[in-house]
UniProtKB/TrEMBL annotation:
It comes from marine metagenome. PANTHER family: ATP-DEPENDENT DNA HELICASE SRS2, UVRD / RECB / PCRA DNA HELICASE FAMILY MEMBER. GO terms for biological process: recombinational repair. This is UvrD-like helicase C-terminal domain-containing protein. Keywords: ATP-binding, Helicase, Hydrolase, Nucleotide-binding. CDD domains: SF1_C_UvrD. GO terms for molecular function: 3'-5' DNA helicase activity; ATP binding; DNA binding; hydrolase activity. Pfam families: PcrA_UvrD_tudor, UvrD_C. The keyword Cell membrane does not apply. The lineage of its organism: unclassified sequences, metagenomes, ecological metagenomes. One of its GO terms (cellular component) is DNA helicase complex. Residues 44-175 form the UvrD-like helicase C-terminal domain.
Length: 288
């Protein structure tokens, strides 16, 4: 591969593409020679400056490239912090540490936050609450396991490992629709492992989600629309529900409109007062 970068002509790579490969080869050779002359921070910042990656991302007007800009800065800052602890380290030392570092290495029970990890890396650990995601046939268990008994059993053992990491409660999550590898959405089928758990140990929690839109400003000052899907409620209201409001007291839902964060309810309270409220802010409580 390195020979092709140096001389792409035999591979019939010519013109602008060929010139780009030759330039890339020279860049690799140059910084390989600088490895022994510059420390990790100097080498990384010199490379970033020469290729102009920060300037490129800063000129863009989309959120994805703004995130990439922040990611490059984060890498440079991480190298600086690594050097503060080990002033004489090389870029190779930094890369070696990063390749071995996982969330588990920095996890401790004194801090209250969510730790993300694979099922394999969770072995031997326990947590009060565990969330297992992607529990769909074809994902967990993997598609290849559906026709291979031995692989299916290994997947089932992994599921057992994940399930038993929980000390108090475990949430089992699956998607009814999922987009994979940029392809069209396909219907998700709950994992057979979930269905194998006796119902008396399960509680089904239904919820709704909605697309939310937010106007944001990029680093260059451009205005963009940021869209994301959020869970809006775990307990949908319906007409006829008895509810309680902190100020207006008890009432009955007479009308519903909208959905998600924009859902509104019309409530007739006991004293004859009628109010239209936005569910997101009203903090209504159902009365059984």
């Amino acid at each position: 591969m390195f020979d092709v970068l140096k001389n792409p002509e035999p591979m019939k790579i010519r013109g602008k593409q060929g010139d780009s490969l030759i330039t890339f080869h020279k860049l690799i050779k140059k910084y390989n020679q600088l490895l022994s002359k510059l420390n990790a921070s100097e080498l990384a910042r010199a490379l970033v400056e020469e290729v102009g990656i920060l300037k490129f991302y800063k000129r863009q007007d989309n959120l994805e490239d703004n995130d990439r800009y922040d990611n490059v800065l984060e890498i440079l800052n991480s190298i600086d912090e690594f050097m503060d602890r080990n002033p004489e380290v090389s870029i190779a030392d930094f890369l070696e540490e990063v390749s071995l570092l996982t969330d588990i290495d920095e996890w401790n029970t004194d801090e209250n936050y969510v730790t993300m990890m694979t099922v394999h890396s969770s072995k031997g650990l326990e947590f009060p609450v565990v969330f297992l995601t992607g529990l769909e046939d074809g994902l967990f268990p993997l598609s290849i396991a559906l026709n291979e008994k031995e692989i299916m059993e290994e997947e089932r053992r992994l599921f057992y490992v994940a399930l038993t990491r929980s000390q108090e409660m475990v949430y089992l999550l699956y998607a009814t629709d999922r987009r994979r590898s940029g392809s069209d959405s396909w219907g998700g089928i709950a994992s057979r492992f979930v269905k194998e758990i006796p119902e008396n140990f399960m509680e089904n929690i239904s919820f709704s989600s909605a697309m939310t839109r937010k106007i944001v400003k990029t680093k260059t000052g451009a205005i963009k629309m940021k869209i994301k899907r959020t869970i809006t409620t775990f307990d949908d209201f319906k007409v006829g529900d008895l509810v309680e409001h902190a100020i207006f007291g008890e009432g009955k839902i007479m009308a519903l409109s909208g959905s998600g964060e924009n859902q509104r309810v019309g409530v007739a309270f006991k004293d004859g007062l009628k109010k239209k409220l936005i569910v997101k802010f009203a903090k209504l409580k159902k009365i059984s």
